């Protein structure tokens, strides 16, 4: 069954708003916290909270979704409660209050995407290679947000950021209302226990490599904008650099449906990890060269675009039927959640002790370790019982 055009645009609309909010949050939230006078350690800790809730939140909501089949109900509820929780950001700028608000907000916000990913794959059925053509609208939303806000904040500063984020969170909720609940389907509960899958070496290897890859991204997502500001780049240039990375990501998403059949998921995943390591070395050692920074941002096509497209298809291959929601939740929680949280938290300390350059060198080492794990354990075919 082919994906109908109206549903294609409804699914794409959700990705657009969700990743537009990421385009506002990830590049500029650290700068916003810096404008409030927080230290690098404080900023790393507050950013880590957003990532850390992904360890718990997607698994709780994934379990509920797999036992009810009501994925879109969870997406809508999570999106609405996330927007409502974020309103607390306007009450006070005290560290512990902001920590509580970010904890509550991100617990609900992080519930939505894994279930929406499972919904998307349910509709794609045998056409999983078309995932990238839908997901690229998320990248377009990210580009428009990060580039446009770079111009805006360069003129008026970043203090308007919370208001913009709240509007985007409301947009996420509204877009979720247009995706029908039938998209998720109702799932049978007779299935092989999840623990058997989780003990398979290929699954363990994939999840460990994803953890290491996202840990290597921790300093980038937390401090890249601050790092570039310290190197003398203007805010609109920094926004443009973020946008260049995601434009490269979009271009590779448009080619993934041809790259995967030609090269295979495992070789592409290994290539993305190697190029990610190269990217972190460039950022860490040559920050004053605008040309090298441009090349490094183009490598986002590999370090996120190829990586995410291959990893999520491997998750879809490993976790079948009623395990789809839990598989997507595990991928999200152990990589973007635990990996991102550890990377952000540790980078807050290394940033103040050994500096930004060496922090990115450690990121390169983490992604190289992931190469070894993938080479040894990950397989492309479906797992035998």
Q: What's the structural blueprint in terms of helices and strands?
A:
Blueprint: H1 5-35, H2 40-68, H3 71-86, H4 95-124, H5 131-156, H6 161-176, H7 194-198, H8 201-230, H9 235-263, H10 265-285, H11 290-298, H12 300-318, H13 324-353, H14 356-377
Helix pairs in contact: 1-2, 1-5, 1-6, 1-8, 2-4, 2-13, 3-4, 3-6, 4-13, 5-9, 8-12, 8-13, 8-14, 9-10, 9-11, 9-12, 10-11, 10-12, 10-14, 12-13, 13-14
Q: What is the percentage of strand-forming residues?
A: under 5%
* Poorly predicted parts: 183-187
Identify the CATH architecture.
Up-down Bundle
Calculate the terminal CA-CA distance, rounded to whole Å. 28 Å
Shape: globular
* CATH top level label: Mainly Alpha
Helix/strand order, N-terminal first:
HHHHHHHHHHHHHH
How would you portray this structure in words?
The protein contains 14 helices and no strands. With 385 residues, the chain is mostly helical. The chain has one domain: MFS general substrate transporter like domains (Growth Hormone, Chain: A). The longest helix is centred in the first third of the chain and has 31 residues, at 5-35. The two termini are 28 Å apart.
């Amino acid at each position: 069954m082919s994906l109908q055009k109206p549903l294609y645009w409804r699914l794409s609309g959700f990705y657009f708003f969700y990743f537009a909010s990421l385009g506002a949050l990830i590049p500029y939230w650290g700068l916003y916290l810096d404008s409030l006078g927080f230290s690098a350690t404080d900023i790393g800790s507050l950013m880590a909270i957003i990532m850390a809730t992904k360890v718990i939140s997607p698994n709780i909501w994934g379990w509920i979704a797999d036992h009810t089949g009501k994925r879109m109900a969870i997406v809508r509820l999570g999106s609405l409660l996330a927007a409502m929780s974020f309103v607390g950001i306007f009450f006070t700028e005290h560290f512990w209050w902001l920590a509580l608000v970010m904890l509550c907000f991100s617990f609900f916000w992080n519930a939505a995407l894994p279930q929406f990913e499972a919904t998307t794959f349910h509709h794609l059925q045998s056409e999983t290679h078309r995932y990238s053509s839908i997901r690229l609208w998320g990248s377009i939303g990210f580009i428009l947000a990060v580039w446009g806000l770079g111009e805006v904040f360069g003129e008026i500063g970043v203090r308007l950021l919370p208001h913009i984020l709240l509007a985007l969170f409301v947009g996420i909720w509204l877009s979720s209302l247009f995706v029908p609940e039938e998209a998720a389907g109702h799932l049978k509960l007779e299935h092989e226990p999840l623990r058997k899958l989780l003990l398979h070496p290929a699954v363990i290897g994939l999840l460990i490599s994803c953890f290491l890859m996202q840990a290597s991204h921790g300093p980038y997502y937390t401090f890249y904008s601050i790092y570039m500001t310290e190197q003398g780049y203007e805010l609109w240039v920094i926004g443009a650099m973020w946008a260049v990375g995601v434009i490269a990501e979009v271009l590779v998403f448009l080619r993934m449906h041809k790259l995967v059949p030609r090269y295979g998921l495992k070789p592409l995943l290994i290539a993305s990890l190697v190029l990610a390591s190269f990217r972190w070395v460039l950022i860490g050692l040559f920050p004053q060269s605008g040309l090298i920074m441009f090349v490094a941002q183009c490598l986002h096509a590999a370090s996120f675009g190829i990586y995410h497209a291959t990893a999520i298809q491997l998750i879809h291959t490993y976790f079948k039927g009623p395990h789809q929601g839990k598989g997507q939740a595990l991928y999200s929680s152990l990589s973007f959640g635990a990996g991102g949280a550890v990377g952000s938290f540790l980078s807050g300390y290394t940033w103040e002790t050994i500096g930004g350059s060496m922090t990115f060198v450690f990121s390169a080492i983490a992604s190289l370790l992931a190469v070894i794990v993938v080479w040894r354990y990950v397989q492309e075919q479906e797992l035998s019982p």
